[in-house]
């Protein structure tokens, strides 16, 4: 029998490879869109029509703004707001595709096995990267994103696999490796993408046949090939694995580790799972908007360069990874998944409140105070990144029960992820709309107030169930 620790190690390595491939293109979207615009400036092209739609949406938003200085600033074509917005919309499109496909992937993995469905989704990711390499038109790049969004199942299925091979006593701590992989890759991946973006593909006469960022795309393709091969040879099928798990002393387990969960009725667990899913979606609705607009804020207030923004995001990623490894993993079992998640939401409220006061003249008048406030907010956001999604995912996994159809692990976690991805799809568009119309102070105050309301509601909801 394969040891659960070996399975978790295999999943972690595969996740790092997968998320590196996913994060490499993230910083390239705005410049990539500008490159397509130069190549195809025809008013009838798909890109031109989408940019016209973006300008129309921005003009509509600004018509509601009473701040002339904000409107004037946003109408400055030199800042390429429409190109940046379209880059963010492509990220939202990816998340929306994930929202649609996640429940289906969960059901299929329950029926046909985790490994088989995971390898099928990996083939879709490989096709997506191959299309990107050769996408010399915006339409073909959009096709690459669609294929990738409908194929990406690694995170969701990895969560199900870890839940398969762990007991209630070890599950939360083990699921924290997913968050660690995210923190590591969202720190390294964009930097790798920016590094390889400045280097041409070592092939003669490739400019007209390949994408301008064909080298980063090729790096992503290679990582995905390595990941697929690694999974094919190292990952066992884990569906139903927990039923055969052995205790530390080598004796067969009788399921006592799951007694606490099994004593709850199916209706209670379904109700709890639905509540956790709603909390997940609402949290990501507001948190993803804050993430998306953070670099807008630093550019507006401090004129931050790409390097300075990269340093800020790396600080958040590295700190989140350290918190995941040293604080979150032991805290999940000691304090409980939902309590840890609630602490993370509270930290986000504090961080957004700090961001809301950054534009004030009192803070901006002192460079030391303004930078200190920015990094204090970044520290709060790092704690949020380390705790909330990991805690909620572990709590959702604890509700699953393979003996009941409505609580089958793949299906349940697929629905849970779907709600979160819907929040990620809408959040950036919502937050940037408020930011552009009313400015950063109103935007971050609104996001903080909404998250505070979510936190109060979630605590009352959990107390009501208790």
UniProtKB/TrEMBL annotation:
It is found in: Membrane. The keyword DNA-binding does not apply. It comes from the Eukaryota. GO terms for molecular function: transmembrane transporter activity. Keywords: Membrane, Transmembrane, Transmembrane helix, Transport. InterPro entries: MFS (IPR011701), MFS_dom (IPR020846), MFS_trans_sf (IPR036259), Sugar_transporter_CS (IPR005829). GO terms for cellular component: membrane. Residues 244-264 are annotated as: Disordered. It is a multi-pass membrane protein. Its main location: membrane. The chain crosses the membrane at residues 7-29, 83-105, 175-198, 210-233, 279-299, 340-362, 374-400, 442-458. Residues 7-465 form the Major facilitator superfamily (MFS) profile domain. PANTHER family: MAJOR FACILITATOR SUPERFAMILY DOMAIN-CONTAINING PROTEIN 10. This is Major facilitator superfamily (MFS) profile domain-containing protein. It comes from Kwoniella newhampshirensis.
């Amino acid at each position: 029998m394969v040891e659960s620790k070996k399975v978790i190690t295999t999943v972690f390595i595969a996740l790092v490879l997968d998320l590196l491939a996913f994060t490499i293109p993230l910083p390239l979207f705005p410049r990539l869109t500008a490159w397509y615009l130069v190549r195809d400036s025809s008013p009838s092209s798909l890109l031109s029509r989408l940019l016209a739609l973006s300008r129309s949406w921005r003009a509509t938003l600004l018509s509601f703004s009473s701040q002339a200085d904000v409107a004037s600033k946003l109408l400055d074509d030199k800042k390429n707001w429409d190109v940046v917005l379209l880059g963010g919309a492509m990220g939202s499109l990816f998340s929306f595709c994930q929202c649609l496909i996640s429940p289906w992937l969960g059901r299929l993995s329950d029926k046909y096995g985790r490994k088989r469905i995971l390898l099928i989704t990996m083939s879709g990711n490989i096709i997506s990267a191959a299309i990107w390499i050769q996408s010399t038109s915006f339409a073909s790049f959009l096709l690459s994103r669609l294929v990738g969004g409908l194929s990406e199942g690694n995170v969701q299925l990895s969560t199900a696999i870890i839940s398969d091979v762990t007991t209630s006593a070890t599950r939360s701590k083990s699921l924290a490796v997913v968050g660690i992989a995210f923190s590591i890759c969202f720190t390294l991946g964009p930097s790798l993408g920016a590094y390889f973006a400045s280097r041409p593909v070592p092939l003669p006469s490739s400019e007209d046949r390949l994408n301008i960022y064909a080298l980063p795309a090729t790096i992503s393709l290679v990582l995905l090939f390595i990941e697929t091969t690694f999974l094919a040879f190292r990952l066992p099928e884990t569906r139903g694995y927990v039923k055969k798990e052995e205790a530390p002393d080598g004796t067969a387990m009788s399921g006592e580790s799951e007694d606490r969960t099994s004593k709850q009725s199916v209706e209670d667990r379904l109700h709890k799972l639905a509540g956790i899913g709603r909390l997940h979606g609402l949290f990501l609705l507001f948190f993803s908007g804050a993430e998306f607009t953070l670099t807008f804020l630093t550019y507006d207030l401090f004129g931050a360069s790409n390097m300075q923004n990269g340093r800020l995001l790396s600080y958040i990623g590295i700190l989140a990874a350290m918190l995941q490894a040293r604080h979150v993993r032991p805290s999940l079992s000691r304090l409980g998944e939902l309590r840890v998640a609630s602490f993370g939401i509270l930290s986000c409220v504090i961080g957004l409140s700090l961001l809301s006061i950054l534009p004030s003249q009192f803070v901006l008048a002192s460079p030391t105070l303004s930078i200190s406030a920015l990094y204090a907010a970044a520290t709060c956001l790092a704690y949020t990144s380390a705790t909330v999604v990991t805690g909620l995912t572990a709590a959702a996994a604890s509700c699953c029960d393979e003996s009941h159809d409505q609580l089958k692990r793949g299906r349940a976690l697929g629905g849970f992820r779907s709600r979160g991805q819907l929040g990620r799809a809408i959040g950036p568009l919502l937050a940037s709309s408020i930011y552009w119309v009313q400015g950063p102070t109103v935007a971050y105050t609104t996001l903080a107030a909404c998250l505070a309301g979510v936190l109060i509601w979630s605590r009352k909801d959990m107390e009501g169930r208790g």
